[in-house]
Design brief:
This protein is mostly helical. Helix content is 72%, strand content 7%. The protein has one domain (6-304). The strands form 2 sheets. Strands 4-3-5 form a 3-stranded antiparallel β-sheet. A two-stranded antiparallel sheet has the order 1-2. The chain starts with 5 loop residues before the first helix and ends with a strand.
């Protein structure tokens, strides 16, 4: 059966990747907005502390110790309430004391820094949920686009139309939830990155405030920390899109009963040694390695089983 020349498959593969990259950029823009909003929200929480306790050069060290030494202040507060309840017999005096020490103004100093920690956790969990939602939409679209685009290219390449199965939700779910690298799927990697960022922020913000840094310096450093998180998120998206594009491509070959494909690597300075070594090699679809063992690639020439 006549086949299109290799440059046909290269061109069609390039067109598909450009289309996928455009959709990926839209997803990344959504992530940028989400990270920017989370950074603003955390900064607001930091400002609440400084607006109440700050001096021109930063926070008063004595106040900082009281704010940050939460376990001691909580225990002191607990002991204080026990003393009142167990030792004050006058109901009217007990009521006045409890009203005083249960008042928001008193508990505010004890809970303010912990509130910042809790809000950091909350913002990052909200951020991870947004990240999972918008990236999953992109990955599902990638799987569908890759599958149908490749089948169309095959039909056009061999000059023959044929019927084929629609890709179903169950198959998409299987691909999405595959632990294809580091024994984790895309969702697990998002939450792992979120947890690492949260731990780092809590530790670093404590160190920054204890050092008496100004709110301007802390805000600047927070922006830098969040940018690292954003970089990791965007890197993850690009990696996952390549993975799902490859999986959908192989799925389309199996559906079309493709026997072999030729591995074509992009030979440039960032091409890994393994991909460069495999460039232009021909493989059987049935013998393909799990995707976690290969980098992204572009099979360009295909053979149909007779």
């Amino acid at each position: 059966m006549a086949r299109k020349p290799i440059n046909y498959w290269e061109r069609r593969s390039t067109e598909l990747m450009k289309k996928l990259e455009k959709g990926t950029e839209n997803t990344i823009n959504s992530l940028i907005q989400a990270y920017e909003q989370a950074t603003k929200n955390i900064n607001k929480e930091i400002a609440k502390i400084y607006n109440n306790y700050a001096k021109d050069s930063g926070l008063d060290k004595k106040i900082l110790t009281q704010l940050l030494n939460k376990k001691e202040t909580e225990q002191y507060y607990k002991n204080l309430l026990e003393v009142i309840n167990n030792n004050i017999t006058s109901d009217s005096i007990k009521k006045k004391l409890l009203a005083k020490y249960n008042a928001p103004a008193y508990s505010y100093r004890i809970s303010r820094y912990q509130s910042l920690q809790d809000n950091i956790d909350l913002e990052l969990k909200k951020l991870a949920e947004i990240e999972q939602k918008v990236t999953e939409i992109r990955y599902v679209e990638t799987i569908k686009e890759g599958y149908y685009h490749n089948i169309y290219d095959i039909q056009k390449g061999i000059g023959l139309g044929f019927s084929f199965s629609q890709i179903d939700n169950r198959t998409i779910d299987v691909i999405l939830n595959e632990n294809w690298t580091n024994n984790a799927n895309f969702s697990t990697r998002i939450w792992n990155n979120s947890e690492k960022l949260g731990n780092y922020l809590r530790t670093q913000l404590t160190a920054d405030t204890m050092s008496g840094k100004s709110i301007q310096k802390i805000s600047k450093e927070l922006f830098e920390y969040m940018n690292v998180g954003l970089y990791n998120a965007t890197k993850l998206v690009r990696t996952e899109v390549c993975h799902f594009a490859n999986e959908s491509e192989m799925l389309s070959y199996e559906e079309c009963e493709i026997n072999k494909y030729r591995f074509v690597a992009t030979l440039d300075q960032v091409t890994c040694e393994e991909c460069a070594r495999l460039d232009n090699e021909v493989f059987y679809v049935k013998d393909r390695k799990p995707r976690k063992e290969l980098c992204s690639y572009s099979p360009t020439e295909i053979d149909v089983q007779q």
